[in-house]
Amino acid sequence: MTINEAKGVYAIAVTPFHDDGRINLDGIGRLCDFYAEAGACGLTILGMMGEAQKLDAAEATEVIRRFMAHSSVPVVVGVSSPGFAPMQRLAQEAMALGAAGVMVAPSANLRTDDQIVGYYANVLDAIGSDIPLVIQDFPLAQSVVMSPAVIRRIVNDNPACAMLKHEDWPGLDKITQLRAWQADGSLRPISILCGNGGAFLDLEMARGADGAMTGYAFPEMLVDVVDRARQGDIEAAMDIFDVHLPLVRYEQQPGLGLAARKYVLHRRGVLSSEAQRRPGPELSPAGKGEVELLLKRMSRHDPRANIG
Question: Which residues are noted in the entry as pyruvate-binding (predicted)?
Fold first, then answer.
């Protein structure tokens, strides 16, 4: 299955570090096993929550190499960059190493619809029009607003556009509009996977999303919600989602949310260290106490949160 047909959960993988800031390359295999065991049907690496901006070029290539060597599911690689030259290098290296596609967010200086459409045409001209492309629509981070009409233009003009990573907020009506255009044939089919830490995943699935491309300390929950929704049982999906919503909300905190996620993954034995590479905030003792309280409360309804 190509990524334009992707359904399910593409987990945004964290990048494991040692306490001193070195990349824990040996820990990548354990991460791949964890996400596969959780039911993820794909991985996305070197995204914002993968701390890609803190890696140099050689480190980024080696991280891709390690994930590709261990992953049993398709891998999408984030290659966003202020310049096309480093984007091209990383995209072509990723594909040579076996990636299923690459993800690019719009440059933050884009303002008009024509600028946004032109930017993605230039991206594909730079990296290669045969590389499957994931459009990252995350206006809260990039300050670039892509209307449904702009997304339709980009997708229809560029056959390599295979997936939308939908992270608009509010953005539920955008999913409805895109699906309506796909139904009437004015937008060719692409996969729509949703991000934002899963904060609206239950409702996004009800609007017609194909799944999630996001991270969370319990990716099993994301898989369960998507599976129930795809089976047509939105109420069951919401029941599962509601149990985890307090921790999902906690992970929404800019910067600190990744610290919370890594703390829980460390507590679960997935990471050998909860460290982020500097600069990056750390959870205070009070913050860790709050996360522990949330885990305790979650465990009353989901035994997976009972991590000792």
Answer: 213
